[in-house]
Amino acid sequence: MVTIHSDLTDFKGKTDEVPADKTPHIHLQPYGNGLKMNMRVRPFKNQGPYFAPGMGGKTVIATVKGKNKQTTRDLGEEQIIAKSLIADCPTLADTDNGTWEWVFDEMDQALNMLLEIENLTQKPVIEWPEGKPIKLSKPLSINEMSFSIQKKTDWFETNGELHIDEDKTLLFRNLLDLIDSTPGNFIPLDDHHFLVLKDQFRRQLEAFSAICKKTKKGASIHRLAALALGNFCDGARSIHSDRHWKKHLKHLEEGLSYEPKVPTTFKGELRPYQIEGVQWLMRLAYWQVGACLADDMGLGKTIQALALMLSCAHEGPVLVVAPSSVTFNWLRECKRFAPTLNPSLFMGKNRKEQIENLKPFDLLICSYALLVNESDHLKKVSWRVVLLDEAQAIKNADTKRYQAAIQLMGKFKMITTGTPIENHLGELWNLFQFINPGLLQSRKAFNQGFAGPIEQNGDRKKRLALKKLIQPFILRRLKTQVLDELPAKTEIVLEVVQSDEEIALYEAIRQQALEKLSNASDTQKGQQSLMILAEIMRLRRACCHPRLVLPESQIASSKLNLVGDVLEDLLANNHKALVFSQFVDHLTIVREYLDQKGISYQYLDGKTPAKARQKRIDGFQAGEGNVFLISLKAGGIGLNLTAADYVLHLDPWWNPAVEDQATDRAHRIGQLRPVTVYRFVTQDTIEQKILALHHNKRNLARDLLSGSDMTGKMSNEELLRLIET
């Protein structure tokens, strides 16, 4: 074949004249992990030479199959058509460099380009001069799925297949495996064949894969995740299910449409959000699934729970397990708001008779300590409702308390907590294993599928999948969302500047800690976490007062001096304050100071008897004492101390949720004045580093219940860095 291309036009009549073809030709060939692409035109259509669009001579003469042929190209029109094609393909337009050549280093980008070209109305000619052509399926959606659903104990087994085309299908289990191993919308079946998934279908598959348990042919999903499965199957090509699945869906629909009313026997006025909370609890009780009422501290979780109990106590006895510090509060609130219930404290010598004589409308209030001691008796009762108050008490699955709680039998199980997650996602698994066992699968599967990816890698898709899975069973409202009338809360960090003597003492303790840890024996290194935490504890105590590390020290405490100045100023202006510290011996030093100054106060720590505790709370509320000294762990829950409008945190705790709970003893319903929170933090010490951790810790719970990233447990290396730098 001889080809001549020229701008001359005097060859007419000597050859056969044919019209020039302007259709773009796409030349593709493998290039590294991607593809290389050239765009050309071929004036003689399927034969003859190629040219870059609009480039070369206008007149082309060629001998094609033994015949001389001539054509006249419209160079401008070629470029218009080619540029129009580029404009209609975003992948080409975004990478166009004006040379009519493209290199796609990543296969996903190359496949996206191919898909865009295949979807064009005016299609170009695609050619593979080198290598085997890549074939893409049509864009696939849930409409190409067939499902079969059957009940297996508490799970629904879901099998099925994806109809790729008339002759090819893919097992649902294999599709899930490919989704887990391949990112993006292009799923390789082999080196030259790819499935193309629509965006929504890809997201649906990822969400389903995150909450399912894979089986030999498909996947199983827990009955309580059926809402997610039902939504997933909507729009499928076909669904074949057994009667159990249909019955379960009907039960779900009835539960969702059930509109309960607050029992008329409830004596009290509920706020609108509390009515919604009671109805939500009643709906889940009707559905016979567990509930986590996780409202912010001070929003009235107790009275919402009591209203729920009134709705079903006629069917059997109710058990409330609570910290011993709030058992009397439960008794008092029950008598006030739910007088038709028969509340009693589980205590004294007749505990066995109390259990044996239980009947409908009885409400047994038990401490966590007695839950463990009397587990053998309590676990034999078929309770209508089992409620764990301040349920973070069972966040550690290795404790006897957790094991005793898990064995309780209740038709409806619920928990109340203002802090569903304090430190890491394992705590959430523990709580849900009580209210809805199996929903979050085994601990190992949960750690691999959710906790690890979310805490270690910040996996947003996994976090959203987990949020969607637990959302029907957890209700959380913040005070800022539902209480317009609640006074403002202002938080202020007061930095403590140490004296030269305190700085020298702190630095000496820090150096001693580093030396001790570096010289630890192999046996001791096996307990490295405990050793590091012990040294950190000494540093934290040194920040509070030199006497907490050296009892005979005569060094004055800069922190105590600042606390004293703040208290004197507050009291001079007729304010009352709650003072929290995690160290009881630190509170002892503060008590000495208040005694010296003649300042009246109340005091409460973990050793305060329950009756004395309530008496001191009532006394403070009635005006007896201007300051209330409280140990953080003993007084952070179950107290109503709205007589105070200032809260002082003398030392930062690892988890700000614990401090927030303590603060909300004052900032809650019934508070009429703005609340100011002072955090005393010593400059250039470990206290400032702990404060820096608070931001991430706060996000841990908030982000799962609303959105964003998370942090998990701290490693030994991270803990050690708190001492080193």
Automatic annotation (TrEMBL):
Organism: Candidatus Magnetoglobus multicellularis str. Araruama
UniProt keyword annotation of Ribosomal protein present: no
An example molecular function term from Gene Ontology annotations: hydrolase activity
A Pfam cross-reference name: SNF2-rel_dom
Region of interest (Disordered), residue spans: 1-25
Lineage: Bacteria, Pseudomonadati, Thermodesulfobacteriota, Desulfobacteria, Desulfobacterales
SMART domains in the record: DEXDc, HELICc
Xref: InterPro entries: Helicase_ATP-bd, Helicase_C-like, P-loop_NTPase, SNF2-like_sf, SNF2/RAD54-like_C, SNF2_N
Segments forming domain Helicase ATP-binding: 282-438
Residue ranges of every copy of the Helicase C-terminal domain listed in the record: 566-720
Protein name: Non-specific serine/threonine protein kinase
Alphabetic keyword roster: Hydrolase, Kinase, Serine/threonine-protein kinase, Transferase
